[in-house]
Amino acid sequence: PLDLKNIQGDILEGIAKKVQTFFFFRIKADHAASFRNQLTHLLPLITSAKDARSFREEIKDAKRRIAPEGHQIGLIENSSVNIAFSQFGLTALGITDDIKDGPFKIGQKKDAVEKLGDKLEDWDPAFKNDVHGVILVAASHQHVLNRGWDRVKHIFHVGHKDASIEVVKELDGKLRPGAEKGHEHFGFNDGLSQPSVKGVSAPDMDGPHDGPVDQGIILVGREGDNGDVPPGAGQVGPGPVSRPSWAIDGSFLAFRYLKQLVPEFDAFLEKSANAADVGPEIPREEVKDLLGARLVGRWKSGAPVQLAPGRDDPSLAAPDKNQNFRFNIDSQELCPYAAHIRKTNPRGDLDSKNDDGTINNNTDVRRIIRRGITFGPEVTPEERESKKSSSDDKLERGLLFACYQSNIANGFEFLQNVWANNPDFPFPPNGKPGFDPLIGVAPAGTVREMEGAFKNDLTKPLTLTADWVISRGGEYFFSPSIPALKKTFAK
Ligand code: N7H
Questions:
Q1: Element at 375 (helix H, strand E)
Q2: For helices 287-296 and 262-275, what crossing angle results, to 10°?
């Protein structure tokens, strides 16, 4: 049976964080042995799913115990640490077993143009060279994170002659301030929908008829892990798994460095809303928010448009309410087919009947656990005024997107390639959905547009005049179990 002590904390629980830094590293040439040695000393710092769970409970508890003068007491001052390796990293360490994941094996860059729609000229140079791994450090305060990283640096002697790694890129995530906490930079509440995992998480996280998913959808080697099933093979049962034995209870981490053009996205919504004829029943000043909500599939509060089609109802964003809906492939009146959350989790749209009469949602193998965090500063008054993002790198902002799954071709890559970037998906009997307005990429020479944006004229196309999410690169990593870190990675 599954033991939460064996699994790295970010996968099933999420490491509690207000700030999180991704340190991308390379193992120095001829330093595999010293790296393995030093990794032994990192092991006690690795946060397991069990640690992450108790940590979260302690925080909740501490929040309840507010001192009379209003200060929180008893908050633990520890950072959380996880580590994951790319295929280049496995190779550098001399680990030659085939882990049986196509995209992981060739690395993200190789297929990024063809499969993800990236433009390599937008990629950060760090991801164009082989990154060997990533160390995740998260904490509730920057100074705690810094202290955690100092300990990690010390372990690998970073910056010294005998260091075994060099840090090739550091990406600093932090939650947005005040009321925007937990909302991404376009303003939408994020991190709401996650698949619950059998025997691990509470099943009430899922909508009706969806989940919990088999452990092997997220964890390698567990029931439901389909091994190296080619993309498009559809939903298959507990599959032919021929992974190396040390891979069990690990998970693939798809990381994406995604820049967001916030003033531009806002200006687009405003312009399109002003030009839209939506009928007299919607007050003019609410049209922009409604349009934004239809593009995402949720209002900024997190309330699903399927449940709150006319105006925001923040009470429907509550954890016990915000998953309580499904779509019907016959209609996009309540939620456009192209809406980001419908493209990436078409709950109900792919339903089929099993022989025994039960419903198969046909989406279980596509579920991913998302663990991203926002990065970069708030929009400045100058940017807002000019409706344009500054060209100053320091003002770059967006999402450090990270998700876990047992099979990248079935998970992240499928969502981006076969769903978001495919204007025909989710195959309604009438109409043409168009591209995911947030992350969908149209091939050169094709108009990026969607239907369903306007409730009173569902087939009227909306031209998505720019890409507001730009990929600056990324990599695929494998986050091994803690026993595997001990026995196969460290020495
Ligand atoms: Fe998305 N956004 O803020 O608009 N996403 N996403 N995403 N996303 C979701 O349920 C966003 C991206 C998924 O089960 C919400 O957490 C932005 C990529 C999936 O209902 C919001 C970016 C991929 C879901 C956003 C971005 C996905 C999801 C609703 C890029 C995978 C769950 C809140 C900058 C290829 C769907 C929530 C479900 C939800 C936003 C990227 C996938 C608000 C800004 C690259 C599976």
A1: strand 373-375
A2: 120
Of the pLDDT bands very low, low, confident and very high (cuts 50, 70, 90), residue 491 is confident
* Nearest CA-CA partner of 82 in 485, 405, 488, 490: 485
**What DSSP string runs through 71-107?**
-B-------EEEEEE-HHHHHHTT-------HHHHH-
Among protein residues, the one whose CA lies closest to atom 17 of ligand 1: 438
C-beta separation of 218 from 197 below 8 A: yes
Tell me the pLDDT of the chain averaged across its residues: 92
Nearest to 129 by CA among 109, 151, 149, 156: 109
Cβ partners under 8 Å of residue 260, min gap 6: 184, 185, 186, 397, 398, 399, 468, 469, 470
The structure's pTM equals 0.95
The answer to whether the beta carbons of residues 12 and 218 sit under 8 Å apart is yes
Cβ < 6 A, ligand 1 pocket? 184, 186, 188, 190-193, 256, 258, 260, 296, 298, 340-341, 344-345, 368, 398-399, 401, 412, 415-416, 420, 438-439, 469
Residue nearest to atom 2 of ligand 1 (CA): 188
Q: Say if residues 243 and 363 touch (Cβ distance below 8 Å).
A: no
- Largest Cα separation within the chain, whole Å, is 71
Place of tokens 């567990």: 222
The residue assigned the tokens 């994941």 is: 101
How remote is the CA of residue 484 from the centroid of ligand 1, in Å?
31
Question: What is the β-pairing status of strands 251-260 and 469-479?
Answer: antiparallel
Using the mean position of ligand 1's atoms as its centre, give its distance from the Cα of residue 69 in Å: 39
**pLDDT band at residue 281, thresholds of 50, 70 and 90?**
confident
Label each residue of 422-480 as H, E or C: CCCCCCCCCCCCECCCCCCCCCCCCCCEECCCCCCCCCCCEECCCCCEEEEEEEEEEEC
Give 86's strand partners: none
Buried b (16+ CB within 10 A) or exposed e, 235-253: beeebebebbebbbbbbbb
3-class SS of residue 274: helix
Region of poorest pLDDT, from 77-91, 253-267, 273-287, 353-367: 273-287
